[in-house]
């Protein structure tokens, strides 16, 4: 990914990094850098995927029983490992929690390269929607180039920082596939299933933001996949929802 060829993203947002950026490797994105506190109830679809009461990944409510997230957040885990927090902008607040009964990873997810990095969580019980707990539609249309896309998540605020208590948000610019690939030195792991965002150094996703939703015109258009941590001047790379729209729809209908 970096100018001297980056290979395989590797910090599965759980904060475990197996490669060093200086050796030119990509890492899974865990946090928002350069953002701000999100307004209360401004992202009622946002969830925190938690293990042992600690934030691990983000996700979005797209159905009363389904959460959209990144496959790498689910890979190697059991449904019983996770609890899904909904309805709050603060991790420390008393919130509503749901338990999953099934983790669904895209059948062509490639763990070494993180292609097809998209997944679904099916909940044991249907979510009870309220003013601050609501689903969001997932987009089938493409996002215009240079569009401003909103990212929300509980990723770290800096590479060595802590997970924030308050939900963060930032507006990021959508850049073309061609520009994204060029900025990543023609890295073959940037593919057509991705949507890339880039503002400037110091504004990006990072550790803890994996699986978090990016929205445009009130619909989720991508989920955070990977990037060069964090906000170092390279585009962030996300699973493009329009590319996976049919997979999402048919998977929900068949489960």
UniProtKB/TrEMBL annotation:
It is found in: Secreted. Residues 32-253 form the Peptidase S1 domain. Residues 1-18 form the signal peptide. Pfam families: Trypsin (PF00089). Transmembrane segments: none annotated. The keyword Cytoplasm does not apply. GO terms for molecular function: serine-type endopeptidase activity. It is an enzyme of class 3 (hydrolase). Its EC number is 3.4.21.4. Keywords: Digestion, Disulfide bond, Hydrolase, Protease, Secreted, Serine protease, Signal, Zymogen. GO terms for cellular component: extracellular region. It catalyses: Preferential cleavage: Arg-|-Xaa, Lys-|-Xaa. Its main location: secreted. InterPro entries: Peptidase_S1, Peptidase_S1_PA, Peptidase_S1_PA_chymotrypsin, Peptidase_S1A, Trypsin_dom, TRYPSIN_HIS, TRYPSIN_SER. One of its GO terms (biological process) is protein processing. SMART domains: Tryp_SPc. Belongs to the peptidase S1 family. CLIP subfamily. This is trypsin. The lineage of its organism: Eukaryota, Metazoa, Ecdysozoa, Arthropoda, Hexapoda.
């Amino acid at each position: 990914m970096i100018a001297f060829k980056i290979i395989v993203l590797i910090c599965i947002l759980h904060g475990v990094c197996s490669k060093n950026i200086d050796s030119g490797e990509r890492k899974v994105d865990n946090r928002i850098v350069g953002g701000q506190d999100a307004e209360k109830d401004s992202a009622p679809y946002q969830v925190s995927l938690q293990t042992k009461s600690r934030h691990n990944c983000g996700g979005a409510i797209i159905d009363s029983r389904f959460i959209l997230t990144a496959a790498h957040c689910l890979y190697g885990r059991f449904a019983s490992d996770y609890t899904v927090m909904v309805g709050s902008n603060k991790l420390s607040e008393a919130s509503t929690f749901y338990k999953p009964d099934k983790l669904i990873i895209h059948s062509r997810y490639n763990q070494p390269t993180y292609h097809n990095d998209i997944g679904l969580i099916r909940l044991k019980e249907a979510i009870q929607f309220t003013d601050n707990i609501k689903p969001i539609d997932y987009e089938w249309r493409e996002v215009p180039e240079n569009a401003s896309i909103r990212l929300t998540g509980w990723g770290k605020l800096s590479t060595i920082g802590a997970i924030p208590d308050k939900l963060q948000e930032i507006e990021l610019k959508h850049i073309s596939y061609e520009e994204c690939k060029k900025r990543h030195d023609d890295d073959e792991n940037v593919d057509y299933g991705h949507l890339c965002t880039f503002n400037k150094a110091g504004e990006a996703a990072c550790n803890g933001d994996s699986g978090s939703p990016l929205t445009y015109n009130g619909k989720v258009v991508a989920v955070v996949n990977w990037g060069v941590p964090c906000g170092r001047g390279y585009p962030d790379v996300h699973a493009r929802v329009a590319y996976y729209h049919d997979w999402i729809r048919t998977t929900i209908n068949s489960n």
